[in-house]
Amino acid sequence: MTSKDIRDKYIKFFVDKGHKEIAPAKLVPENDSSTLFTSSGMQPLVAYLLGENHPAGKRLVDSQPSFRAEDIEEVGDNRHTTFFEMLGNWSLGDYFKKDQLPWFWEFLTQELGLPKEQLYVSIFEGNDSVPKDMESYEIWKSLGVAEDHIYAYGVEKNWWSRSGPPSKMPAGEIGGPDSEVFYKFTQIGHDLQYGDKCHPNCNCGKFLEIGNSVFIQYQKQADGSLKELPNKNVDFGGGLERLTAVILNEPDIFRIDLFSEIISTVEEHTGKRYTEVQSQSPMQVIADHIKAAVFLIINDVRPSNKLQGYILRRLLRRSALKIHQLGGGLTPLPGIRAIAESVLIIYDGLLGIDRGRQRGIVGEVVTNEINKFGDSLDRGLKHVEKIKTIDGKITFDLYQTFGFPYEVTEELFRQKGQQINKEQFKTEFEKHRELSRTASSGMFKGGLADHSEIVTKYHTATHLLHQALRDVLGPQVFQKGSNITSERLRFDFSYDQKMTDEEIKKTEDIINQRIKEDLKVDKKIVAPEAAKKMNAIGLFDEKYGTEVSIYGVGPNYVLDSQAKDQRERAGYYSLEFCGGPHVEHTGVIGKINRGTILQGKIKITKEEAISAGIRRIRAQIVLK
User: H or E element: which one contains 102?
Assistant: First the structure.
C-alpha cells in the first residue's frame, strides 16, 4: 500500500462518514504575523474551533502540508521531519469521543489492516483541574484494547491548547485532553539509555505515534478554573509518512516511497550507501531538509536572514554541510540540485507541485544560495579546524564571514564535545544589527556591511552599475544611496519611471562587459576643483576639504561615441568621489572560487520604486 493509497483511503473513509473534504491551507499563512508556517491541519481552523460557522459544515477532513521549524534539531532519527502531511478530521460541535475513537480504530485495523496487538493508546491521567479521561479509557477497552496497552500521561503529553497545559492557558482559551495511538515495532529492542522500561512515549524508536485525537471540551475562566464547553470539538491529526511506515512495518520513515527516490539520489551524490553509513542521521537530515526547502520555494519563500527566508537558508546550508561531510565534495551544488529534482519527481501533481513549471525556479533559487555558501564552505571549515575553543563571538564571526548559521556551527562543535554560549552570540548579533541600522541611515561609510572581499567586489560593482544606468537611461541618473552586504548590493538612484526588461538587460550586459574587459581601478587624491574638471560624479554642493578621493575604472578606456556625451574623464569608464575599498581590476568581480576559479556575472534581481522619483536595484554575483 503506497502513501497515495493511504491518503485516498483516509479522505474517502471520512467523506463516507459525512465529512466534507476541504482544501489545504497554504504552507506560509497569509495575513497571520503570529506564525511563520502552517504547522498542522488544526491551525487554519482555530476560528471555527472557537465557535465560528465553517461554510463546509460541522464535519471536515483534509490532508494538510505542514512545516515545523522547531523540529529541525530533532531530524536525524527514524521518525522526525520538518515537512510532513497531516491527515485530519474535525467535528465542530457535532460528534465526540464515542464516534471519533471507534472510527479511527476502524480505519487503522480494517481499512489499513494493522495488527491490533501492535497498537497501543494513551489517555490523559488527570490533574487538580481535570479528572482522568475515563470515558476514552472505557471506549478503548470496549474496542478490545487490552489494559496493558493503555497508558495514562499528564499534561505534557496528553493535553492540548494553543498555550500549553491548563496552568498556562489565558482566560477564554480552549483546550482539552487528547488520546494518542502508537504502533509498536517488535523487531526493535529497547535502548536502555532512554530508561529502564519502554513505553509508548519512549524515545528509543520502538514505538511510533501515528494519530492524536484532541477533545476540545474546556474553556479557561477569568478565575483560573476550567469550564466545560456546551459544544465540544474533535481535532484529529495523523502523519501520513508515519502511517505509511507502519503499514510496511518499517521503523524508519525514510525508507517509504515519499523518501526512497530522495535517499537514492543522496547516495548517488555522496558515494555512500544509506545502510552502510554508521549513522543514517546525515542522510536523513539532507533528505528532509531539501524536501522541506523545495516546498518552501514553491510557496514563494526565498533565502534571506529574516523570518521564513532564514529557515530556508538554514535548511539549504545545513544540507550542503552534510553532503560535504559525507564526501560530496567542496561543491555540493550538483547533489543538492539533483535531490531537489527528485522531490519534484515524487510529488509531481500533488500538493501544488508542477515539476515542469517549477523545476526552473527551484533550480535557480537552490543554485544561487548554494553558490553563495559554497564560496566560503571550505574556507570556513578549515578555519573551524584551527579553533581550539569556540565562543559566541567566534560563532558570530563564522556567521558574518563565512555564512554559517548559528545552528550549523553549534552542530559542528557539539560533535567535538563543545558547547557555545548562545547569549554571547545574540549579544554580538545585536551589535551588528545596530551597526546595520546606522548603515541604513547613511551614517556608516559607503553603506558597506564590512570590508570583506565579497563586499569589496560588490562595492566596485556599484560604480559600474551607476555608470551603466547613466549610459542606458541618461545623465539625469544619480546615485541616491547604497547598502552592500556579502549577499548582494542594493543601489538607489534618481529616475522617474520603471525600467523596462530591455533596459535592465542592457544595463547588466554593460556591467558584465566591463568585468570581462578586466579594467584597472585607480585611486586618485586630488583637489575638489580638479575632480570637477575631470567630470567625476559627486555631490558638489557638499563641503569638501582641500583634497578628495576619487576612483576611476578603466584607465585609457576607449569611449564609444554614444558614451562620450557627458564625460571626457581622462579615459576612465567610471569616475566617482568615493572612500573605497575597491578591487584592483574589474575582472576580479566575476571570479568565484569553487576550488577552481569559475566565472560569474552580475545579475539584477529586482528593480522597484522606493519613493517618488527614486528607484532601487538589487543585484547579486551568480555563476554564468
Answer: helix 97-106
Mean pLDDT of 574-598: 80
Cα separation, 56 vs 46, whole angstroms: 15
Sign of torsion, CA 550 553 558 564? negative
Domain with residue 578: its CATH number is 3.30.980.10
For the stretch 87-107, what's the b/e string if a residue is b when 16 or more beta carbons lie within 10 angstroms of its beta carbon? Answer: bbbbbbbbbbbeebbebbbeb
566 near 597, Cβ under 8 Å?
no
Query: How far apart (Å, rounded) are the C-alpha atoms in residues 29 and 517?
Result: 47
284 within domain boundaries: yes
User: Number of structural domains, the chain?
Assistant: 4
Locus of grid cell 525600467: 499
Give the pLDDT of residue 526.
82
Q: What single-letter amino acid sits at 407?
A: E
Domain C-terminal end among 214, 231, 253: 253
Note the pLDDT of residue 402. Answer: 65
pLDDT exceeds 50 at position 355: yes
Same domain, 426 and 487: no
User: Would the CA dihedral through 579, 584, 585, 588 be positive or negative?
Assistant: negative
Identify whether 398 is part of a domain: yes
**Could you tell me the CATH number of the domain that includes residue 25?**
3.30.930.10
Same domain, 279 and 306: yes
Among candidate residues 360, 364, 346, 365, the one with its CA nearest the CA of residue 262? 346
For 452-461, what is each residue's pLDDT tens digit?
Answer: 788 889 999 9
Q: How confident is the model at residue 424 (pLDDT cuts 50, 70, 90)?
A: confident
367-376, 392-401, 582-591, 597-606: least confident range? 392-401
Distance CA 66, CA 82 (A): 8
**In 309-318, which positions are buried (b, 16+ CB within 10 angstroms) versus exposed (e)?**
ebbbbbbbbb
Whether the CB-CB separation of 549 and 488 falls below 8 Å is answered with no
In a shared domain, residues 574 and 593: yes
Terminus-to-terminus CA distance in the chain, angstroms? 45
Given phi > 0 = left and psi -120 to 50 = alpha, else beta, which region is 216? beta
Classify residue 238: in a domain, yes or no: yes
Q: Which three cell numbers stand for residue 57?
A: 459544515
Q: Are residues 82 and 184 in the same domain?
A: yes
- HSE-up of residue 456 (Cα within 13 Å, Cβ side): 14
CA 292 → CA 64, 179, 267, 296, 301, distances in Å?
A: 14, 28, 19, 6, 11
Q: Are residues 370 and 409 in the same domain?
A: no
Q: Is residue 382 part of a domain?
A: no
Last residue of a domain, one of 200, 230, 253: 253
Give CA–CA dist 195/191, Å, rounded: 8
Do 458 and 434 belong together in one domain?
Answer: no
User: 516's torsion region: left (phi>0), alpha (psi -120 to 50) or beta?
Assistant: alpha
Q: Which three cell numbers stand for residue 241?
A: 509518512
What is the side-by-side strand order in the sheet with 479-484?
Answer: 479-484, 489-494, 614-623, 596-611, 591-594
- 26 shares its domain with 138: yes
Same domain (yes/no): 611, 493 = yes
Q: Confirm if 618 and 523 have CB atoms less than 8 A apart.
A: no
- Domain span including residue 537: 446-623
